[in-house]
Design a protein that fits this description.
By secondary structure, the chain is an alpha+beta fold. Helix content is about 40%, strand content about 15%. It has one domain. The structure holds iron/sulfur cluster (2 copies).
Length: about 160
């Protein structure tokens, strides 16, 4: 079944392609460590919903054993915490953390319909159809404004 998140991701990919603008990641990390507490894990572009699937991944790659299932979100996806997070909210294996940790927050999260925590220091910045419309509108107005300015200058010289 397709979720709202699926359609959000689809729309974002479509818009980005039509406008030829990639989403930007702006801001900086506030080192709060919250993204290491409520983690969604994915494989092949799909979020994990099956405990069996997660066990298979752990068998293939023992580095995933650091993750503990803490529950499910409203869409039924498994939510994990990481046992490598220290009491001070800092990663205890920073140098050898997983690629998914190094690339967080990745643009792929945005294009899969995901969002960042509201209190995260990073945010996604994407060009919208409205932005383009307003830009073009301003573009149409500005030559007129320029002509008006020139006319006023001319009038002032007389
Ligand atoms: S390995 Fe480190 S950076 Fe990655 S989720 Fe765990 S605590 Fe966070
Ligand atoms: S939630 Fe955002 S601000 Fe907090 S540690 Fe993770 S990336 Fe940094």
């Amino acid at each position: 079944m397709f979720s709202l998140r699926y359609f959000t991701g689809l729309f974002r990919r479509f818009r980005s392609r039509v406008l030829r603008r990639e989403v930007e990641i702006i801001g900086q990390c506030k080192l709060c460590g919250r993204c290491c507490q409520d983690i969604l894990l994915g494989e092949c572009g799909k979020w994990l919903t099956s405990k069996r699937k997660f066990s298979e991944i752990c068998e293939r790659d023992s580095r995933y054993n650091r993750f503990r299932i803490t529950g499910r979100d409203e869409a039924g996806r498994l939510v994990f915490s990481c046992s490598e997070m220290g009491e001070d909210n800092f990663c205890t294996c920073y140098e050898t953390r997983l690629p998914l940790c190094k690339s967080y927050p990745a643009k792929s999260l945005y294009y899969q319909g995901g969002s960042l925590r509201p209190d995260c220091g990073f945010s996604f910045k994407a060009m919208t159809f409205r932005d383009i419309y307003m830009r073009r509108k301003r573009g149409r107005i500005s030559p007129f404004s320029e002509v008006l300015r020139q006319e006023q200058e001319q009038a002032g010289k007389k």
